[in-house]
Amino acid sequence: MPAGAARADNPVVQTIYTADPAPMVYNGRVYLYTGHDEDGSTYFTMKDWRVFSSADMVNWTDHGSPMSISTFSWASQDAWAGHTVYRNGKFYWYVPVKDRASGQMAIGVGVSTSPTGPFSDALGRPLVRNGEIDPNVFIDDDGQAYLYWGNPNLWYVKLNSDMISYSGSPTQIPLTTAGFGTRTGNASRPTLYEEAPWVYKRGSLYYNVYAAKCCSEYIAYSTAPGPTGPWTFRGTVMPTQGSSFTNHPGIVDFNGGSYFFYHNGALPGGGGFTRSVAVEKFSYNADGTIPVMNMTTTGAPQIGTLNPYVRQEAETIAWESGVETEPSTEGGMNVGFIENGDYIKVKGVGFGSGASSFSARVASAASGGRIELRLGGTGGTLVGTCTVPGTGGWQSWTTVTCPVSGATGTQDLYLRFTGGSGNLFNVNWWQF
Ligand code: FUB
Questions:
Q1: Residue 69 in contact with residue 77, Cβ under 8 Å?
Q2: How would residue 7 be classed by pLDDT, with cut points 50, 70 and 90?
Q3: If you write DSSP's letter for every residue of 197-210 in order, what string do you get?
Q4: pLDDT-derived band of residue 83, with 50, 70 and 90 as boundaries?
Q5: Which of 323, 346, 330 has its CA nearest to residue 432?
Q6: Mean pLDDT confidence for 96-125
Q7: Mean pLDDT of the 127-149 span
Q8: Which residue in 92, 365, 387, 416 is a FRET match for 432, CA 20 to 30 A apart?
C-alpha cells in the first residue's frame, strides 16, 4: 500500500480486475454489474460477469459471478460490456458475446428474479446479431424500451414489453458530426462515437454518454429531445486518463446524488486489459450539462454509516489488501486466501456509544490465526483480537467471539489478519 492510499476508495473493487460498469438502482442499493478481466490478460480475455452492491457508495458487497459465457450455450467467448435493467419483477442482463456458429458478436439476454442472480439464458439464442457490441437498454416514461448498441455504428431497436423480443428492425442512428462531434485522422470514422452507449432521460432531455475516439478513448456525450434523436454533441465528460486505452460510462441517480462509473488501469498490474471500475459523484450544471470529471483515488463520499450491530458480510469491503473472495457453502461469498498482514477496510462504521464484543464466522483447513480489530488504519487503535482455530476445512464454519473495548463513534474499521505462513483462514461474516 502506498502512503496515503488508506483513504482511497477507487477503484471500487480490488480483489479482481473489473471493467465495463453498468450500475442499477434497486430497492435502496446500487447494484454494479461488471465484466471481469482475467489476471495477466493480454487481450479482452473475459469469461464471466460480476455483481457488487452498496447502500453507501463506499462499502461494496461482492455477489460473485451469477452469469458467464457458459450461461449461453451458443456463445464461445468474449463476456464483454453488458447492461442490466429491472422490469415486471425480473432482471434482464443484455450482454455482447461471440456467437459460435457465425463467429460474429451478438447480443444475448440473461434473466433472473434476483438482482444477484443466478441468471439464465432468456432465449437460447441471440436477441440480435450484427457483429456489434455494448448493449444498453433505456425504458422511457411511456413504457417503451429501447435497446442501443454498436461499434463502429450506433444502433437501436424497440423492445417489446417482454424485454426479450423486438418490433421493427434494428435501425442505425445517423453518426453525424453535429450529433457526435468530429474525429480527425480516421476517414472511416468521422465522428467521435466509438462504443459503449449509455442512454437515459433527465427531465425532458435524453442523454447518450459513450466512449469517444480511439485509442485511447475518453468519455463524451450528446443530448436529444427524444430517445432516437436528433442528437447534439455536448462535449467531454471525462478526458483520456488512467492507464487504460478503453473507458466505459455508467450513470445513475441514487439517494439524491448523481454518480458516474467508469474504468481505468489503476490497480497494481493494471492496464488496458486489466482494468478496474471506479466511481465519482457529480452534480449537473444548472443548464443540464454534465461537468467534466477527472479520475480520483478518493471516489464518492459515503452515504450514512455502516451498522456493525447487524450481520455484515466479510465480502463487504471499502478497500482491501491481499484477500480474495469465493463462493461459500453457507451461501453468498466468503473472504479467503487470507495471509499474514492482509486486511479489509470497512469505511464509516457507526459504533455509537460503543461495542462490547465481536463475532465472526470463520473456517480454516490450516491452524487459523487472529483477526485484529483496528480503528483508522492498519496500525490504528487495537480494540479487540479474535483468535481463529483450525476447523478441519476451508468451508467447515464455526463462530468465534471476543471482547471489544474502545470502539465508539464513527470509525473506519480495519480487520487485520495475522498468523503463520500460507493461507490462514476464511471469514464469511462478522457482527459487533
Ligand atoms: O470489455 C470489452 C470491451 O472493451 C467492451 O465491450 C468495450 O466497451 C470496451 O470497454
A1: yes
A2: low
A3: EEEEEETTEEEEEE
A4: very high
A5: 346
A6: 98
A7: 98
A8: 365
Active site residue 20: yes
CA 197, 201, 202, 205 torsion-angle sign? positive
pLDDT band at 429 (very low <50, low <70, confident <90, very high): very high
Mean pLDDT of 85-96: 98
Grid cell listed for 254: 441514487
CA of 18 from ligand 1 middle (Å) equals 11
| For residue 1, pLDDT beyond 70 | no
The C-alpha cell 478496474 sits at 276
DSSP 177: H
Reduced 3-state DSSP string for 130-163? CCCCCCEEEECCCCCEEEEECCCCCEEEEECCCC
**Which residue ranges form the domains of the chain, and what is each CATH number?**
3-282 (2.115.10.20), 312-431 (2.60.120.260)
How far apart, in Å, are the Cα atoms of 378 and each of 342, 375, 401? 9, 8, 21
- What DSSP designation does 5 have? G
Q: Which residue, 227, 282, 287, 276, is CA-closest to 252?
A: 282
Q: What is the pLDDT of residues 201-222, one digit of tens each?
A: 999 999 999 999 999 999 999 9
Q: How many Cβ atoms sit within 10 Å of the Cβ of residue 228?
A: 14
19 Cα to the center of ligand 1, angstroms = 8
Q: What ligand 1 atom has the least distance to the C-alpha of 246?
A: 10
Q: What pLDDT does 223 receive?
A: 98
Asked if 11 and 296 count as a contact pair (C-beta separation under 8 A), the reply is: no
Query: Residue type for 111, please?
Result: V
Model pTM score: 0.97
Instruction: Please pick, among 78, 194, 217, 412, the residue that the annotation labels catalytic.
Output: 194
Identify the CA nearest to 391 among candidates 414, 427, 365, 413: 365
Measured between alpha carbons, how far is 211 from 194 in angstroms, rounded to an integer?
6
Atom of ligand 1 nearest to the CA of 19: 1
Mean pLDDT over all residues of the chain?
97
